[in-house]
Design goal:
alpha/beta; 11 strands; about 325 residues; 11-stranded mixed β-sheet
Length: about 325
């Protein structure tokens, strides 16, 4: 059985900082566009955000040129540009500032380079739940390793963001996510909920003969300590937020609470290159199994530059 406690904010919301999508300023929204329709939800979300936040949008499609001659890749890119431009023109209102770029190369590398070159405020992706994969296979996971900006995964038709859920483990990673959600929430007038999960002990502890441990008292103590720690975290990073404390497996708690929210903003963990090792098991589970949009924020200290990786792995001459 899952228990939950919550506290209300201690002061009235502060005025929003105009033009802020994140703690960074400036930069367009970059949308990774698939040739089929699985990226359409991300396109619609980008249009909605651009209208609300007065930002330009750049749509990017990458033609994977692996195994293709240069002339073949260029010809394919021209054909794709024509088809995608026609489709996007029917989805994006004339009043919006937008452009389409079709690049050739390896998708993740080109997307991260483009996001860096235009100083993107965020990269938006669609998803392909039917295949059990995020976006273009592993593109979302790789982008979360290499992109310098937040990555927004939009799996469903868009709806207005009024309630933002921010799972926190009180680490630097979740502090960055809380700061992003705070600025974005203030900009669009959305409430924020900081969710802290207390996991049950995974190991049994030795008890001296004759001693007695009160399980209920142990749980109550963990809850009290966790709630106090989360309130201190809230006061430091987003005094306007509400605090929820739950018992149980974090991923399950986040997915359950996400049903009552419009957006989940999460910090990521790890520097690896595969699956949950990249994202942290909780973030990976929510991206894989959750039914709401997720913005994943990578802490600056965990950023991995693809060009640096390529230079390091290149053979020495």
């Amino acid at each position: 059985m899952t228990s939950k406690t919550h506290t209300t904010p201690r002061r009235a919301p502060a005025p929003a900082r105009r033009g802020a999508l994140s703690p960074r300023t400036g930069g367009p929204l970059l949308v990774a566009v698939a040739f089929d329709h699985r990226s359409d939800p991300a396109v619609r979300r980008a249009v909605q955000l651009a209208s609300r936040l007065h930002r330009p949008v750049q749509f990017v499609h990458v033609v994977d040129d692996h195994g293709l001659m240069a002339a073949e890749a260029d010809g394919l890119a021209r054909d794709v540009h024509t088809a995608l431009h026609e489709r996007l023109a029917g989805m994006v209102p004339d009043a919006h500032a937008w452009k389409l770029r079709v690049l050739t190369g390896r998708p993740v590398r080109e997307l991260t380079r483009r996001a860096r070159d235009i100083d993107a405020a965020a990269v938006l992706l669609g998803s392909h739940k039917d295949r059990g994969l995020l976006d273009f296979g592993s593109t979302a996971r790789s982008l979360l390793t290499h992109a310098r900006c937040p990555v927004w995964v939009q799996p469903l038709p868009t709806r207005t963001v009024r309630r933002i859920l921010v799972p926190v483990d009180l680490s630097e990673d979740s502090a960055g996510a809380a700061a992003w959600a705070r600025d974005f929430g203030r900009e669009i007038g959305a409430s924020r909920t900081l969710l802290h999960c207390i996991e049950p002990p995974r190991y049994a502890y030795p008890v001296p003969p004759g001693a007695w441990v009160d399980p209920a008292g142990l749980v109550a103590g963990l809850e009290s300590d966790g709630h106090a720690a989360c309130e201190r975290f809230r006061d430091e990073h987003d005094p306007d937020a509400v605090v929820h404390v739950r018992h149980g497996i974090p991923a399950r708690a986040v997915i359950a609470d996400a049903e009552d929210h419009d957006l989940v903003v999460m910090g990521t963990h790890g520097r690896g290159a595969l699956s949950a090792a990249v994202l942290g098991s909780t973030t990976y589970s929510v991206l894989r199994d959750g039914g709401v949009p997720v913005v994943a924020i990578r802490h600056a200290s965990r950023f991995v530059d693809m060009d640096d990786d390529a230079r390091r792995d290149a053979p020495r001459t």
